[in-house]
Design a protein that fits this description.
With about 280 residues, the protein is mainly beta. It is about 5% helix and about 50% strand. It has helices at about 185-190, 265-270, and strands at about 1-5, 15-20, 20-25, 40-45, 65-75, 75-80, 90-100, 100-110, 120-130, 135-145, 150, 160-165, 175-180, 190-195, 195-200, 205-215, 220-225, 230, 240, 245-260. Strands 1, 2, 3, 4, 5, 6, 12, 14, 17 and 18 form a 10-stranded antiparallel beta sheet that branches. It has an 8-stranded antiparallel beta sheet with strand order 7-8-9-10-20-16-15-13, covered by helices on one side. A hairpin with a 2-residue loop joins strand 5 (about 65-75) and strand 6.
Length: about 280
C-alpha cells in the first residue's frame, strides 16, 4: 500500500492506495469555505473489490461523516454537531507509514472550543490492512485530559460512528444485525454489542460493513438507526470522567467487506482486532 497526501485546499487529506485503487482517505478538515470540516473523518472507505461503503454529509444529519469520532458534551462543549458554537477537533501533527500489506496514519489533535481554547488533546491512530474478503480499518483514540479534568456527559451523540451509504442501509433494503443476534435498528439501539453490521447490495454486488468495538473496549452500548448510522457509545447511560493529567483509550474496527461473511468471519475479525490499545 502507499499513502498520498493531497494538500490543496479542496482536499487536505491523506489517501491510501493499494496499487491504483483507493482503499480509504483520512480527511483532516479545515475552515476554508470550500472545505469546511470541523472534525477529521475517514471517507471514502472501500471494500477490496472497490465498492464504497461510507456516506459523507448525508441528506439528513450531515454531521454524520464517514467514520468519525465526536461527543456532544465534553465539559459542556459540543464536539459532535456542525454548529456555530460547537467545538473543533484540529490536527496539529500528522505522521504516516505504509508497507505492502497495510498503511498507518497517526494524528495529534487538539479539541478546541469556538474561541480556539484547547479543552483536550488526542492521539488517533488509523491502520488499514487488506484480507481476502475485507479491508479492516482499526481506529484507536486516546483522549488526554491535558488541560484539566474532562467530563464526558451522558448523551446519545457519542463516540465512534459510521454512516453507510443509502444503498446498504435498512431503509433501502439492507439488513442490520449485531453480535448478539438482534436484527433491525430498533432492536439493536441502546443495547451492548461487540459489533453491529449492515449488509446489502450496490447494484448486483453484495457487500457491507461492520462497526466493531475492540475487544478491550467491548461490549459497549450502541446507537443504531435505520438510515445507516451506528455509534459505539460508552457514555450512553453513564458519564465518563478523565482526571486532570490522565487519559482514556477506545478502539474501533470497521470491516468493509464483499459478499456475505459468516458469523464466524465476523467473530474472527473482531477477536483479531487486538487486546492491547496502547
Amino acid at each position: 500500500m502507499r499513502i498520498e497526501f493531497q494538500k490543496p485546499r479542496f482536499f487536505n487529506r491523506l489517501r491510501v492506495l493499494d496499487g491504483d485503487r483507493t482503499v480509504m482517505a483520512v480527511n483532516l478538515g479545515g475552515a476554508d469555505k470550500d472545505l469546511l470540516l470541523m472534525r477529521p473523518c475517514v471517507h471514502p472507505l472501500y471494500t477490496p473489490a472497490g465498492y464504497p461503503v461510507t456516506e459523507m454529509g448525508a441528506h439528513n444529519f450531515p454531521h454524520h461523516k464517514g467514520v468519525w469520532i465526536g461527543h456532544a458534551q465534553v465539559n459542556g462543549m459540543n464536539f459532535f454537531h456542525d454548529l456555530v458554537d460547537a467545538g473543533w477537533i484540529v490536527p496539529i501533527q500528522v505522521s504516516s507509514h505504509a508497507d505492502a500489506q497495510s498503511a498507518r496514519i497517526d494524528l495529534d489533535l487538539e479539541w478546541r472550543d469556538q474561541r480556539g481554547t484547547v479543552i483536550a488533546t488526542e492521539v488517533r491512530r488509523h491502520e488499514v490492512r487488506r484480507t481476502g474478503q475485507a479491508n479492516l480499518l482499526d481506529m484507536v483514540s486516546t483522549l488526554h485530559a491535558s488541560h484539566g479534568a474532562l467530563e464526558l456527559g451522558v448523551d446519545n451523540h457519542s463516540w465512534a460512528g459510521c454512516r453507510l451509504i443509502d444503498a446498504l442501509d435498512q431503509d433501502d433494503g439492507g439488513s442490520m444485525s449485531d453480535s448478539e443476534g438482534r436484527v433491525g435498528a430498533d432492536a439493536i439501539s441502546g443495547q451492548p454489542v461487540r459489533w453491529v453490521e449492515v449488509r446489502g447490495a450496490i447494484g448486483d454486488h453484495t457487500c457491507g460493513a461492520a462497526l466493531m468495538a475492540h475487544p478491550a473496549s467491548a461490549p459497549v452500548p450502541t446507537f443504531a438507526r435505520f438510515y445507516g448510522t451506528s455509534l459505539l457509545n460508552p457514555t450512553m447511560y453513564e458519564p465518563l470522567t478523565i482526571a486532570d493529567g490522565a487519559s482514556w483509550t477506545f478502539g474501533t474496527r470497521v470491516a468493509a467487506y464483499d459478499g456475505s461473511p459468516t458469523a464466524a468471519d465476523l467473530k474472527r475479525w473482531w477477536s483479531e482486532a487486538g487486546q492491547d490499545l496502547a
